[in-house]
Amino acid sequence: MIAVGLMSGTSLDGIDAALCRIVPHGAGYDVELLDFTTTPFSADLRAELTAALPPNTGSVEDVAALHRRLGEAFAHAAQTLLRGRHVDYVASHGQTLWHDGDRHFTLQVADPFAIRETLGVTVCFDFRSADVAAGGHGAPLVPYVDALLLASGVEDRVAVNIGGIANLTVLRRGVAPPEVIAFDSGPGNMLIDAFVRERTDGTHAYDAGGALAAAGVADRTALAAMLDDAYFAQAPPKTTGRERFGAQFLAAHARALDALSLEDGAATLTALTAATLADAIRTHAPPGARVLISGGGARNAAILRGLAERLTGFVVEPSTAMLDPDAKEAIAFAILGYETLRERAANVPRVTGAARTVPLGAIAPHNLRALLETLEAECRR
Known about the structure:
By secondary structure, this protein is α/β, with parallel strands linked by helices.
C-alpha cells in the first residue's frame, strides 16, 4: 500500500508529508520511506494560526476558517510531495488547536474533505478523539508505532521526539506495543523558538543548530525556577502542549529571562529541555539504553550535547540509521491510517490512560470498497 502521512506539530514550522510503502508483516509492518517534504506555512496562514492558539483566543468563525484553510494547505503539501505519483490513501493528523488530556478533550483541524477532493483518495483523520472518548488523554499516539518499528529483541531503546514538545517511548528489549511506557517530558523546541523570535523581533524563528545556546551559559537560578513547574514531577500517563508551555510560561519567568542575553537565555531554555528529558529517561528507561532522537531537536547540537552530558552510560544519537528523524511522525500517522482501515486498536491505554484499546481515526471515503479489498489481499499474503 502506498500512503501519504501528513503532520503539523506544535513547532508550527510547516506541514510534514511522508510518502511511504507500507507492507503488513506479521503483527507489524515493513515501511519504506519513498519521499519526504516539509511545506512551510505561508506568512499569513501562520499568523492566523498563531492568533488562534493559546494563550490567544479566537472566535468560532476563526476556527472554522482555519479548518478550511489548513485543509487546503495540507492538500497542497501532499500534491507537492506526490508530483503526480500514485497514492492509495492519505492519513492526516491535522493541526492541534487545543489539547487538554486531563479534561479529556482535544481538537485537531485541517478539513480532510478538502484533502480528499483535491487528491481523489480516501483520507483517514481525527486520530485522537477515539482514545479521549475511551477516557484517555488522546496522546501520545506515536508510541504504538515506535513499538512496531523501533523495538529490538537484543537491546533496550528509547525513542525520543523533540518537536515543540518533547516526548519519549521506553522500548525494553522484546517489548510489545501494549507494554511500552511513554509520555511528554515537557517543552522541546517551543520555548526556545518563542524566546528567539521575541528577542530578535522575528528576524530569527529558532536557534539554528543550537548555535545561540552553544555561545551562551545557562543561568542556574532561572533554570531552577522553571524546573519547579509541577508538570515535571507529575507521574505518567501525562501529556502537555502549548496550553502549558507556550508564551505564558515565558511570561511567568520574564523577569529572570529578561536579565539574560539572547545567548544565555537560549542556553537556559535548552538546558530546561535537556534536563527534563534526561530526568524522564533516567527514571523510566533501563540503564545503558540506546536513545534515538527524532524531530527538529535531532538537528540541535546543543540539545544533543546536553542530553549526552546528563545521560552517562546511555547511547544518544539521531534515529537516522533506523528511521528518518524528520519524517518519523508523518510516517507514524501513515501507519496509524493503515490501522484505521483495518479497524485494529492502535492506542496504548497504559500510555494514554484510556479504559481500553480502541480503533483510532475517522474515514473520509473515496472508492473505499476497492481500497479495503486491496488492503485485505495484502494482509492475507
